[in-house]
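Table S5 (text form). Sequence records supplied for joint modeling of the two-component complex.
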Amino acid sequence: MRNRQETPNYDPGAIEKKWQKQWEADGLYHSDIDESKPKHYALTMLPYPSGDLHIGHWYAMTPSDAHARFMRMQGYNVLFPMGFDAFGLPAENAAIKNNIHPKVWTYKNIDRMRTQMKTMGAMFDWRREAISADPEYYRWTQWFFTQLFRNGLAYRKESPVDWCPNCNTTLAREQVWGDDRHCERCDTPVIKKNLVQWFFRTTNYAEELLYYDGIDWPETVRLLQTNWIGRSTGANVTFKTAVEGHQFDIFTTRPDTLWGATFMVLAPEHELVSKITTPAQKDEVEAYVEQALRQTEIQREATDKEKSGVFTGEYAINPVNGEQIPIWIADYVLTTYGTGAIMAVPAHDQRDFEFARKFGLEVRVVIQPSGVEPISGDEMTEAIPAKGDGVMVNSGEMSGTPGEIAIQKVNQWLEERGIGHAETQYRLRDWLISRQRYWGAPIPMVHCPKCGSVPVPDHQLPVLLPDDVEWKPTGESPLKLHPTWRFTTCPTCGGEAERDTDTMDTFMCSSWYHLRYLSPKYDKGPFDPKEYDYWMPVDTYTGGIEHANMHLIYTRFFHKACRDMGITEGHEPMMQLRNQGMVLGEDGEKMSKSRGNTVPPDELVQKYGADTVRAYLIFFSRWNQGGPWSYSGIEGTSRWLRRVWAMVLEAPQNSGSANERTIRNLRRKVHQTLASITRDYENFEFNTIISSLMELSNLMIQSKQDGASATRAWDEAVDIYLKMMAPVTPHIAEELWAGLGKPYSIHTQYWPKVDNEAAAEDEITLVVQVNGKVRDKIVVPADISDADAEKTALTSDAIARHLEGKTPRKVIVIPGRLVNIVL
RNA sequence: GGGCCGGUGGCGGAAUUGGCAAACGCAUCAGACUUAAAAUCUGACGGUGGUAGCACCUUGUGGGUUCGAGUCCCACCCGGCCUACCA
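The corresponding structure-token record, covering 823 residues in total, follows.
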């Protein structure tokens, strides 16, 4: 109020535009190879150009940007690129709805979102922008496909696959969610279809993907991936049918229960079913198979469904004891896992138990748990899981083997007899890559009646996506309906051939975008090796945890496959991963248009400025946790920035000189804050960065009132303060920095160093407890000895009152903190 | 059913990783400034009792370890996420 005349108002709209222009004009955020500096590749997951920048994008990108800026001030040459994951279904859906070409829709959205993103003031190097729908980008996506094909990592097969009837396309296993098995994009329950599709051999890497050596990834992501990959160990055992001697393998995690197998179960789709079924059972079996297949088509539903199945009429010989046991078929056995056939041990497996009880099959106990009465198969009401503490019984010569060594011993026994061998199974499936949609990178393969599937040669890439296509979904690939596009000649024999009319899963595009950023215009390969050698691997990667089992698995697979093909180096693409949580609406619910609880970032920027929005987003909660938005909360952050503005610019009310104690306290707080904020930036703990800055400005404002503003300590405090806030609130920091006549730009300054002497406390508050209860607080010199601390504590009046004349049994002294007197 | 994460004032959240619970902010209340309002500034603000010094209670519940537990261990309750006939 007093200084309105001379102090300009904080006008974020004006200063933010000004500096964004200046930074762009100066190329302040261009990052080029510089061998004299250590490099830091900071990456945040690229957005899909949905049309509008969402507050979630701000939430994801702001801390990523702040951390990148911090690293830059730490002396690193930082690369922080941005681009667009531009292929994908929403473009087609919007196209259908509004009758606008997917390409037009997508590129219009990109322009809009790029403009919006620039208002964030992030240090993106836009020269490195990559857009996955550009032909110069997907040329290399296609090139990678042909590389994978040539190296045996891409193959084509017919199989029952997940089909989304709404999106009219197949999906990868990872893109089918929830207990009702719905489409990840549109929530429609998926159905099964038998189709010929392209797959990548992700399962080749199942084992290696379980190792996270040398990378710093959150425990939760590693756990999600580990569970998804689903490693289980056991044995494969070969059985024969009794009559015709057909061989078939089963997988079991409990080979030590082999003697308890009282029947076998094949999946209805198992190839042996038609061969072994006896004439008497034929009608019943065929009816069941048909019903099971139809059911799969509708949906292989319901976990708590009643067991069903049919006897084939044929028996199997149990290789461990020569017994004949009946072979059934049942839909609780899946073709897609293991060998599609199991031995059933009802005494020790709940599913088998339910099946046995329903159909009156024998239940035979072969593992006797310790400390329990011998159990009888007839009397059991549920299966007794075979745990490690049991002992094998009713198992011929293996009887008496203790549980801890049973599996290993049986495996050895099986191997010696050539009956079976130890085996590891993974739940992970190969990655289904074909999509029956238009807006994607065409699969660069040609199908020739003579030569089979032939990859399009490198010099013919990219296989361009034609513009003149009827993209309305019919269940057929739109490219198939194009009058001419699919007809071509075979690259091998020159004969008439057809192109593959499917496009690739967009997760293929995003599996390597971090490589394209290195050199988005490079045309001799997917990336410039010079750039690769300098920048890779990604040092810090940030993004949502929802990608744990999709993008983050795919990109690791992709990198490992490329390594084995000699394209990349190292075992992992991203060294450090950090996940953000989710900003919820003010009502604590997930934001959605239908709920009406979305938060529009553009309006907030207009009202408060980008710096306030950035600061509030990282202040309101722990970043990896997320939480509800608050419109009144952001007012507090806005208030803080206005206070800082006034603190730096307004003429002091008290221009006298501060006393020594004020100066000492000011410097101590500044350097203590610097130490804790430095640690917070390093650890991605952003919310406490803001609260520490608020605390410090509260003290600085007080110091200023006490006459500190004409001192060197004050200048130092302001200098450090602006540098500490620069990564989070880059515009106001730059403006105030410039206003003080300091050299442009604050963002190229080095991070200040902590003065440990200044930060040291010379007095501490000694907490004195009696029997663990705080009874006194005494200010003492910081370097007080344990003995003196004890003496001081014991002589306090307040303590004496609580001692009631008794002699302490024990006194515990925690140096610099407290004394606990135990009576 | 299995796995994981979480539960701290009216609200969002801090807590040096076993050492003063509630930092910082929001909301609220009171006061200053103002003709008035906004903005700004000052103060109060976990609960109970007391004029007060102070005392007792308090981190989902119950137990345990420890001189000392929001933090470690055991059991349970609640909420969220993932997964699911995976043999």
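Note: Confidence is low (pLDDT under 50) at residues 1-5 of chain A.
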